[in-house]
Amino acid sequence: MGTKEAKIDKLAKKLTKLVEIFRRGEKAKDFEWWNHNSPLSIFKPLYGYQDGQLLFKEVVEGIISLNPEMLSDHWVHRELIFEFLTYQTISVTKEQHLSNQSLVNEAKKQVNKLIDFENRQNIDVPISNLRIIGEQFQLANVTFTKITEPELEVWKKNIPIMWDSQKLDGHAIARVRAPGDQSKAISYARTQVDLVLDAFRAFCFPFISKAFSGQTSSWQLEVVGDVIPLGSTPLRINGKRFLAQVGSGATQLELEKNILSKLEQPQWELIDKLILKTNRSKMESKLQNGIHWLSESTKPDTNNSKFIKISVALETLIGGEPQDEELKVRGITAMLAERAAFIMGENLNDRLAIDKDIRTYYGIRSDIVHGNIKVVSSDNINGFGKLIHRLALALLGKLDELGDALSDINELETWVKKQKYFLPSNNTKEQ
After folding, report:
1. Fewest beta carbons less than 10 Å away: which of 147, 255, 343, 420?
2. How many Å apart are CA 330 and CA 328, to the nearest integer?
3. Collapsed DSSP state (helix, strand, coil) of residue 237
4. Three-state secondary-structure class, residue 172
5. Is the dihedral of CA 252, 254, 258, 263 positive or negative?
6. Distance in angstroms (rounded) separating the CA atoms of residues 306 and 268
7. What is the DSSP letter of 129?
8. Euclidean distance between CA atoms 37 and 52, whole angstroms
9. What does the pLDDT look like over 20-73, one tens digit per residue?
10. Backbone CA torsion sign across 304, 306, 307, 313
11. Among the listed residues 248, 18, 2, the one whose alpha carbon sits nearest the alpha carbon of residue 129
12. Is the Cβ–Cβ distance between 31 and 19 less than 8 Å?
């Protein structure tokens, strides 16, 4: 018997034991008692139900391990409870109960049904404040399309509408072809949409927009329901005059003009490639997390918080000490400045300027953390944000270029050292 077959047989026997546990006691009137959502504290040792819950958890985890791409915890719970356990305990009379090998065979059939389950479905996620003028656009597994009035009417009939129906041209749908049961597919779709929106914000959004000039204080592009609204702010001037509203609400963004035009096609292709990867190297994971923090720094927040988020993006992108005592002597600031300079510097002067800027901005970060700066300036946020934006794009290109030779932080440090001490082939001895 192969390894998979042995696991299936073992799971079927555990499922059979569960049936026997419930048959020994009173009828299990409410299987929600002992599912994964119930707190353990409510359980009493009645007819082995506590043992049954632990056994049930083992069965669920075992089944998911054999089909992880398609199955969610919630779905397997539901299928086992309502398609097998209730039927074998309370839905039929005792005379109709299966037993012995017949019960094991039925349990095995249920386990195989879940392990063989395969499904893909379209999940439509509504996006607020995004206007699509041209054709639909796809990045990774996410396709952005216009939302039409008939489609909006369908949404209205099924769920409470959460956006302004009078501004149909300002909203879009992100469609994801998602694998798995309903819970798994929804989780997958939201993750994919969030990764793409992170890339949009990190590489295409301003870190600071002009206030009090007809622009919002920050662009807002979110899944409907996640948007932080910019409400009216009542202000009183000289104790008399009231200003009812500041700003003009959320910016209506055009996908082509405000986002896609910010990068060249080869850069979008590299972003697409990164998001689609399922087995990322450690450096690729650091890059993806760094993009997330850069994205977070474009959202509405205080200046100091924005600056700290950009600092976190820098540290996430290229921070981390390999097993090298030298770094402990050099210090984190010098390490970050050196790595950034070699990753994105185009020549000697450019590298020197990058090194200086990283040291300056990271020093401001330390001043914020230690309370030496009350409010960091918008110019510093813009300058630091654009620098780390450039670093993220440069690292994206370097990882694609060098591949496995730059898979973790140790290899990054080794690569930086080679850049420092490399001598051109035509180098001549000093006279």
Report:
1. 420
2. 6
3. strand
4. strand
5. positive
6. 25
7. T
8. 15
9. 877 775 444 444 445 544 444 444 444 445 667 788 889 999 999 999 999 999
10. positive
11. 248
12. no
